Every structure is written in C-alpha cells, then in structure tokens.
C-alpha cells in the first residue's frame, strides 16, 4: 500500500537522536581496554602501548585484575564498556580507532588522575572514547563502577553522525541515560536505500523524500537521555534549516522522541517563520521516519469561485500495516460542511479503495449532496479473480461544482461494473460481467448525452491454442450479452467467432493467413425499430497479413546507427450482408490510426461488420542506436485501398463510403537531442484534398524540474449539428523552468482556438529556500460550456515538518507533463484521488 503523508495537523516532524560527529582526530594516547560485566577469563588481555608525553591514569574493576597489562602504568587512563544493545535503530557508527578494542574505553587529557577501579578524572582537552561515542570537555570524570561520565565546560558528545554540545552533561555511557544541560544538538539518520525497481534519478533530480537523510538541529534548556533512541527535550527548538539561516523552527515546551517506535510527541509548541509565529500547536504526535501513525494530517486551505474559502482537515487511522482509513472534514465558505471517508487496503490476494462524500446541506443548491466509489480487485486462486468498480453521485453537477480536476468535471457517464474471471484453463478463459452507467446530463446546459446500454449480464469465452498439427493456431471469441435500455431496443445477442491461422515466420519476414466464421444471433424483447425479433447473421472473414524487415548499418551526423525498412501488406475480405434491420446496441466508429487500418472491422462492438475487399499497405523506417537500442527516428506511412464500395453503415443517416482510397496516415518521431523529442501525426484526405487531422508535439526536458512542451491539435469538423461540433483546434503550452536564483515558474495554457475559449490555464511560481518551499498557483478551468472554476493555491512547505496552505502538487503533476517537485525527486505519498 502506498502510505499517506505522515505529517500531522498540530505536528511538526522532528528527527532527533545524538549529535553530529566531530571532525577533530583523537590524540594518540595509550589504550588500556577492559570489559564490565563478563568473567575474567572471557576478557581480552590488554595490549601494551608506548607511553605518550601527556599525563594519563589507568584503572580497572577488580574482576579485571588478572588481565591487566604489565605495561599499564599506575597513572594511565582506564577503559570500561559493555557491548551495545542489539535490535535498536541507533545512529550510524563512526570510523573506529584501530588501536582501540571493541567495547573498550579510552580517557585522555592534559592531566589525568584518579583512584584504581573507582574513578578517573581528566582536565584540559579531556576526551572519553568508546566505540562510536566520543565525549570531550574542559574537565570530565568517569565513574567506573556505575559507567557514568560527568563532563563540564565546552562539552561535546558525538555518536556516529550526531552531535550535542553544551556547558554540562552527566550520562551513563553504555546505557545512554542521563541529562544534558542547555545543549545545542544536530541530529541525523542516514538515507534509506532505493526501493527495488525504483527508476534512476534524472539529471538535477533531488533525492526522493524516502531516500533523504533525516536530519535537524536546535537547542534546549535540558535534554534527558532515557536510553538508546529515547529522548526528552524541554523548552526546545528544532529546524531542518542550516544553522546560520534558521528561517523556520518549531519551539515546544516539551518534546518526546522515540526512535525505536519512530514516534515523536510535542506539547505547547509554536511554529515560527521568519521570526513570526504562524501556528500554535498545543499538542502534536508525528512519525520519526516512514512508518504510518494515526492522527490529524496537515490541514489545507484555499479559495475558488465555486466554493469560496476552502478548509480541509483530515484525520488518518493507521489500522494495520495493510489497511488504513482517512476521515476528512471540509468546510466551504459558500456551500457549507462536507465529510469524506476513504478506506484503502491491500493483500497478496486482494486490494481496493473506497470513499464516500456527504454534504448535509449545500447552501447554494439548498439540498444534500453525496458521491461515492468502490474499486476492488480479488484473486481467489486457481485462476479465479473478480473486479468491482462502482461510482455514483447525487446529481449531474456534483463534480462541476465541487471538483478542480478536469478529468472529473468532463465525465458524463460513471461506470458501475462487477466481473468474475476464470483464467485457469491455460489456453482459454471466461468472464461474467454486470455493467451499467450513471449518466450525468447537466440541467443548466441541456446538452443531449446518450445513455449507454446496460449489460445484464455479459458472458465471454475466449481461447488461443497455438502449435496445433501443421503449425495451425486456433482462436475463439464468443459472447453472450443481455442489453437493457430505458428507451431503445432491448434484447440478447449471442456471438460465436472461431478462427484458424497459420503463422509463417522467420527472423526477417512473416506471413499469416487466417480464416474465420463470425456468427451472431439476436433475440429481442422490445423492438422499436422495424424488423423481426429473431435475427441471425453469418459472415466468413478471410485475411492475410505479411511483412518484411530490412536492416543496414549507416551513419548520420557522425554517429553509427542501424536503419530499418519495414514494409507491411494486409489483405482482408468480408462479404456483404444486409444489417439494416439489426439493432445497434454498442457499435460505433473506430478512431482512424495505424492500428485500426490493420483491423478486420471499421466498427466497434458486434452489431455492425463492414463488408470489405481491401488492401492495406504501410512502411516504417527507424534509426536505432546500436549501443542502447534506443530509437532516434521513427517514420511511418500507411494507406488502405478499397476494391469495393462500402454498403454497411451504422444507421440510415450515416453516408456510405464510395471512394477507392482511405485517408493517408503519416507519423514522424524524432529525438532531436538528448531529452528533446518531437512527434507529429497527419491524416490526409486524398478524395477531397484536405487535412482531416494533424497533431504536433515538442518536448524539451534537459534536467529534473526543467521542462517545456508545445502541442497543437487539429481535427476537421464534419458534424451537421452546429450545436454539437465534433471537430477541434487547440494549442497546449506547458512548462516548468528556473527563473532566477531559487525561483521557478510553472504553467499551462490550453486554449480552444475554434471557440476562442481558454480550456485550462495555470500560472504559478515556486521558491526553494533549501529547508522550505513556497508555491503560489492560480488555476482557470472550464468545466462546461457555461461554467468556469477559478482557484488559488498557496502553500508553505517546511522540509521534514509538513506544510501550511493548499497544495497544488496534484494539479501540477496532472497538468504539466514532466513536472518535478523542486525540493523532492518524487512524492510516494501523493494521492491522486483527492478532489
């Protein structure tokens, strides 16, 4: 399951343990190791060392007397330690002194003195070292029996990459229990390794949040060490900014940090930004890592012309590692209060997400409103699986009024579907499905929206059995559907389409002849059009598909390439059958493209099968980098030639084609330079000598968070209804680019040139200060022919500590191809299901 963002409302993520390691080298004093708490026979014999010029003293516990080194002088410092406790998530170890045995303690100073097996004191550049822990001070005293050290004056404690400094500290070295007075601390944890299969970083891309080191620093009146990975700070501050520029920081009366459970808790806190208090946090709990935890998530607020002031406060329930729940309260200034509950779950055998939204009283519409969705995938094992996708809203304008997503506001039919599939047969599979739609007809525009047929049920059986005797392949496509509609013809359709093909293939060419018989049976319950209630249609279908691939080595622009030439010829024959009395349940026109010109039928669905006696030819050429296999150039040209006129049409009002040539298709894709692509496609009508469609796209992305895109689309309008044209002409400009300093610009301009209307406009700026980011974005969204939504997003994001405002990240990711979060290479917690 993709975890949610774990920063809580009233919470600031604090990452605290020991301080950052010092850079100074340890002085070369004598090492005299011993171990506490083990029998004398198990202790290693200390090694003799040369007496340094500085004073030193050594003592050991009574049990270690038999293991003392003859070279250890009475004035030499003692070493005493026990191994670190296993199973803890401690600070990363620092490089060890090769002359110091594991678990041994070394104490040095300008003057060292003490009592044998009791205590050792050091003054002047005093240092205590054990494993990854180093304590330095003007004066320190080590109590060997209790394993305590008391340090006074310029105290610095380092462990791995963590550091604390202050005037006084007393602590048990091994147990890490004690008190540090008035400390300044720097706390960090190492970066996590990339997840398996994670994509490599782009040039200039920052590390994802999950791979960035957890670090921060601050000061406190007192820091209580309560054991390894357990800390309590009083009157403390914390920030992830650089020490010389703490633009923001959290100040709390009390902070509790538990790095074993990866949970922190703050009481009586205040968030400061640019020396101005911006949020009071009476209580907050937060995760110290990637683990999820129940609690209030960071609130968001914004504004738009549809809902007014918009405040969202979510509460997250971490119910189990594989399922969770989020309850969200949304307050809209113009419309009132809305509640949303979303549940997510995942298991090796199933996964899903479900949400429900409810608004008791929309103050604009004067009624309650709701929306809901359930998506569930189940694997029962043994080849059995199921799927549920059910969506619904209270009224057709729900998304138009309450959503800022173009994909939602443009919906006119909401799917409601459930299916069960068996695929355990190896070469065959079967599916049973129930399907219906909720049609959203906007009452304000009155636009006519066709209601799709319900399939109650649809049963399919498909098979693909290759390598039969003689190399023959058997395929089967069969279907039973019961169509239901409130106003049109209703009935049942049974389709049975067996096929035999003989693939002949080598490394350079292929030829595949195929023959099949398409049989369809109709039984109608309600007939509004003319014709019988029982109908049968049988059609033989014959085709031959063939192609050749030529290759040669060539050079272009001083580079070596492999050039291909790939011609393809496809022949199709389907005899004519009168289908004018057959109802049209689900047939329509396919989009005309390179895939469709090699298809058996120009119509979708199963109610219309066009007569055909035609040849399709196409040729493709590519330039391929022999080292990487990447395509630098791809060019394609294709056309269909008709040997007979078209006689089967969708309905009596659809004109039949009479020309001998289909439209000419051309496509070109170029990688002009690294990270620079150009794609264009053209559909030309040779009968009338005009362009049917033309698309052009250019994208330049030299590095992360640096992208520019231009696209232009054109489709000729052939609708006879002026109110519902099916042509379009629009331009789309997108980009994200550094402006100056740490400022970035981001935007999108998508304009309908036919209607002279802005479809979507986005303009915004971002500023990356290193430890915080500002984003300000304005969005213009045309939600219908007469409605426009305008929204403003304002966000302050504090690295490692959540954010304030309304996040525009989901809007930018969906609307600007190649958009990159400037302070984070990726956001694994992004929730694209939020409205």
Distance between the termini: 20 Å
What is the number of beta strands? 44
Low-confidence stretches: 1-89, 825-835
SS element count, helices: 3
The level of helicity is under 10%
Radius of gyration: 36 Å
Which structural class is indicated by helix and strand composition? mainly beta
Question: What sort of overall outline do the alpha carbons produce when their principal axes are compared?
Answer: elongated
Described by strand count, sense and barrel closure, the largest sheet is:
26 strands, antiparallel, barrel
Percentage of residues in DSSP E strands: over 45%
Summarize model confidence as the mean pLDDT.
81
What does this structure look like?
There is one protein chain. The chain has 835 residues and is mainly β. Among the domains are: 40-160, no CATH class; 296-439, no CATH class. It is 2% helix and 54% strand. It has three helices and 44 strands. The strands form two sheets. The chain has a 26-stranded antiparallel β-barrel. Strand 25 (454-468) and strand 26 (472-484) form a beta hairpin. The two termini are 20 Å apart. Residues 1-89 and 825-835 have low confidence and may be disordered.
């Amino acid at each position: 399951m993709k975890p949610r963002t774990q920063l809580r409302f009233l919470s600031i993520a604090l990452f605290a343990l020991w301080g950052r390691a010092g850079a100074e080298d340890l002085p070369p004093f004598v090492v005299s190791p011993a171990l506490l708490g083990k029998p004398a026979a198990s202790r290693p014999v200390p090694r003799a060392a040369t007496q340094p010029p500085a004073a030193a003293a050594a003592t050991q516990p009574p049990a270690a007397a038999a293991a003392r080194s003859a070279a250890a002088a009475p004035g030499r410092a003692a070493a005493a330690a026990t191994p670190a406790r296993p199973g803890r998530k401690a600070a990363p170890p620092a490089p060890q002194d090769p002359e110091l045995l594991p678990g041994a303690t070394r104490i040095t100073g300008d003057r060292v003195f003490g009592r044998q097996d009791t205590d050792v004191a050091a003054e002047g550049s005093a240092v205590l070292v054990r494993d990854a822990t180093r304590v330095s001070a003007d004066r320190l005293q080590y109590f060997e029996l209790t394993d305590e050290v008391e340090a006074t004056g310029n105290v610095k404690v380092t462990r791995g990459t963590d550091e604390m400094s202050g005037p006084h500290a007393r602590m048990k070295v091994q147990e890490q229990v004690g008190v540090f007075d008035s400390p300044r601390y720097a706390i960090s944890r190492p970066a996590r390794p990339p997840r398996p299969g994670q994509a490599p970083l782009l040039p200039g891309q920052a590390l994802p949040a999950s791979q960035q080191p957890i670090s921060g620093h601050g000061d406190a009146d007192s820091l209580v060490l309560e054991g390894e990975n357990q800390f309590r700070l009083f009157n403390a501050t914390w920030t992830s900014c650089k020490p010389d520029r703490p633009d923001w920081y959290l100040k709390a009366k009390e902070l509790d940090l538990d790095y074993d459970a990866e949970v922190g808790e703050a009481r009586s806190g205040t968030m400061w930004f640019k020396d101005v208090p911006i949020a009071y946090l009476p209580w907050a709990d937060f995760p110290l890592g990637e683990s999820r935890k129940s609690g209030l998530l960071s609130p968001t607020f914004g504004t738009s012309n549809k809902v007014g002031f918009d405040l969202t406060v979510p509460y997250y329930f971490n119910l189990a590692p594989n399922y969770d729940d989020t309850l969200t309260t949304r307050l809209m200034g113009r419309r009132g209060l809305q509640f949303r509950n979303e549940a997510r779950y995942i298991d090796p055998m199933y996964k899903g997400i479900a949400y429900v939204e409810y608004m008791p009283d929309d103050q604009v519409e004067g009624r309650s409103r709701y929306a809901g969705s359930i998506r569930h995938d189940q694997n029962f094992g043994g080849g059995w699986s199921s799927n549920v996708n059910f969506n619904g809203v209270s009224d057709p304008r729900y998304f138009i009024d309450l959503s800022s997503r173009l994909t939602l506001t443009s919906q006119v039919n909401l799917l409601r579907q459930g299916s069960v599939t068996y695929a355990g047969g190896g070469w065959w599979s079967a599916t049973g499905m129930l399907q219906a739609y909720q049609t959203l007809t906007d009452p304000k525009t009155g636009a006519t929206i066709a209601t799709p047929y319900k399939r109650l049920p649809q049963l399919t059986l498909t098979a693909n059995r290759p390598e039969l005797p003689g190399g023959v392949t058997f395929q089967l496509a069969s279907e039973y559907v019961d169509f239901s509609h409130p106003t049109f013809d209703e009935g049942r359709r049974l389709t049975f389409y067996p096929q035999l093909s003989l693939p002949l293939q080598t490394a350079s060419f292929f030829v595949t002849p195929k023959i099949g018989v398409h049989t369809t049976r109709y039984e109608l319950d309600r007939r509004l059009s003319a014709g019988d209630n029982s109908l049968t249609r049988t059609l033989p279908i014959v085709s031959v598909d063939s192609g050749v691939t030529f290759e040669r080595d060539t050079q272009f622009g001083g580079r070596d390439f492999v050039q291909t030439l790939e011609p393809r010829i496809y022949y199709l024959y389907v005899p004519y059958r009168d289908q004018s009395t057959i109802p049209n349940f689900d047939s329509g026109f396919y989009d005309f493209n390179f895939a469709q010109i090699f298809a058996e039928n120009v119509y979708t669905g199963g109610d219309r099968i066009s007569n055909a006696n035609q040849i399709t030819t196409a040729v493709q050429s590519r330039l391929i980098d022999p080292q990487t296999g990447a395509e630098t150039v791809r060019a394609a040209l294709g056309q269909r030639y008709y040997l007979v006129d078209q006689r089967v049409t969708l309905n009596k009002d659809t004109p039949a084609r009479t020309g001998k040539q289909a439209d000419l298709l051309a496509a070109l894709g170029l990688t002009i330079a690294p990270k620079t692509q150009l794609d264009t496609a053209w559909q030309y009508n040779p009968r009338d000598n005009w362009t049917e469609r033309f698309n052009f796209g250019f994208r330049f992305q030299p590095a992360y968070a640096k992208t520019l895109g231009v696209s232009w689309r054109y489709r000729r309008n052939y609708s006879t209804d002026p109110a519902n044209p099916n042509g379009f002409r629009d331009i789309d400009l997108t980009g994200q680019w550094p402006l100056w300093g740490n400022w970035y610009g981001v935007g999108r301009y998508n304009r309908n040139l036919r209607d002279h209307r802005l479809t979507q406009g986005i303009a915004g700026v971002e500023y990356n200060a290193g430890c915080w980011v500002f984003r300000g974005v304005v969005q213009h969204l045309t939600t219908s022919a007469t409605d426009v939504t305008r929204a403003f997003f304002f966000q302050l994001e504090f690295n490692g500590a959540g954010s304030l405002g309304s996040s525009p990240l989901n809007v930018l990711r969906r609307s600007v191809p190649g958009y990159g979060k400037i302070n984070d290479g990726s956001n694994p917690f992004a929730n694209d299901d939020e409205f």
